[in-house]
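From the methods appendix. Each design record in this collection lists the tokenized structure first, followed by the designed amino acid sequence. Records were kept in a plain field format so they could be parsed without special tools. The example shown here is representative of the layout used throughout.

RECORD:
FOLD TOKENS (347 positions):
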């Protein structure tokens, strides 16, 4: 099985940036120490701090934090492994191995990290039980180096217009460019030192709580998912108000249905009355037609002239009367408004 560490994987952009920044800061700090009065003591102090910080950086980066039981099982494939003897209750389907409860599979590294804390993108490696102490030493001594570099670079910028800088051959040639680089480094060092201070305080908090970074993140997510008692009370009240609104809507719907049925009944009664009137009219018209036919027959079949004249007079008088009746009925029909109920009225 190959050793997998921060150096064996493809370097990330953050890892390349931190290496360049670290080397450039070290070179510029050594150059600026020569301007200080006690440069020998500063060289010794800075070299000791740099060696300790470099040691912890290298140890944290090249360490393989893979679970030792996973390595053991992958080396001895085909042979039986007694996971009950080692009290391994979890099984990783990606690594195909039994692991401890504190072991977690890292997606970035694609391996099971023993006592997993977090994946550090700056070193491109996981931080777990095998390299957690080295990681704490790395961030602490890197923070001290940054504070030391800030003090040195600040003193150099304050002495920029003095003759001490002109005595150095490097500053006599590249005075402005080195000053710009120093100012940029000073800004980056200040930002990095603040971030490292926050990280140190955070890990002190985790140490007091007795939890890892992964467990802290899981706890925060669970708190966000599970609301507080007050929010639960609000949710219950909202649910009750929603149920009341649903009941009111249902009652309104039932009332609208009843109102619609009543309107439909009224409309059907008006419709039936209009049908009866039409039937009466049809009967009257049929009677009048039959009477007119009989009268026509009488007119055509009458014997005397007087009877024919009387029949003609009766015929035209009845015809005029029927026209008058029809006009009156049409006016009555126009006064009756038969409206079908619209659906929008009940919504």
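DESIGN:
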């Amino acid at each position: 099985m190959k050793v997998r560490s921060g150096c064996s994987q493809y370097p990330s952009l953050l890892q390349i940036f931190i290496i360049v920044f670290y080397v450039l800061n070290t070179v510029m700090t050594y150059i600026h120490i020569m301007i200080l009065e006690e440069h020998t003591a500063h060289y010794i102090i800075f070299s000791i701090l740099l060696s300790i910080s470099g040691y912890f950086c290298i140890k944290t980066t090249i360490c393989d934090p893979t679970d030792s039981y996973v390595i053991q099982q992958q080396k001895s494939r085909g042979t039986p492994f007694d996971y009950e003897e080692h009290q391994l209750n979890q099984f990783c389907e990606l690594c195909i191995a039994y692991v401890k409860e504190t072991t977690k599979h890292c997606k970035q590294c694609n391996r099971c990290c023993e006592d997993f804390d977090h994946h550090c993108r700056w070193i491109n490696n996981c931080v777990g039980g095998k390299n957690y102490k080295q990681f704490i030493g790395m961030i602490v001594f890197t923070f001290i180096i940054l504070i030391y570099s800030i003090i040195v670079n600040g003193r150099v910028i304050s002495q920029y217009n003095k003759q001490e800088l002109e005595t150095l051959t490097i500053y006599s040639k590249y005075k402005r460019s080195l000053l710009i680089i120093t100012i940029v480094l000073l800004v980056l060092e200040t930002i990095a030192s603040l971030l490292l201070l926050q990280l140190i305080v955070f890990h002190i908090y985790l140490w007091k709580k007795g939890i890892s970074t992964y467990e802290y993140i899981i706890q925060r997510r669970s708190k966000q998912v599970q609301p507080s008692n007050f929010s639960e009370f609000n949710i219950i009240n909202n649910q009750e108000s929603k149920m009341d609104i649903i009941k009111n809507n249902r009652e309104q719907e039932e009332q609208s249905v009843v109102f619609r049925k009543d309107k439909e009944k009224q409309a059907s009664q008006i419709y039936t009355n209009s049908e009866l009137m039409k039937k009466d009219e049809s009967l009257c018209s049929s009677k009048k037609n039959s009477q007119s036919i009989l009268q026509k027959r009488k007119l055509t079949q009458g014997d005397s002239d007087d009877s024919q004249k009387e029949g003609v007079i009766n015929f035209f008088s009845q015809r005029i009367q029927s026209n008058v009746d029809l006009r009156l009925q049409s006016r009555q029909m126009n006064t009756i408004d038969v409206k079908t109920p619209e659906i929008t009225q009940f919504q």
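APPENDIX NOTE: The beta strands are 90-92, 97-99, 104-106, 111-113, 118-120, 125-127.
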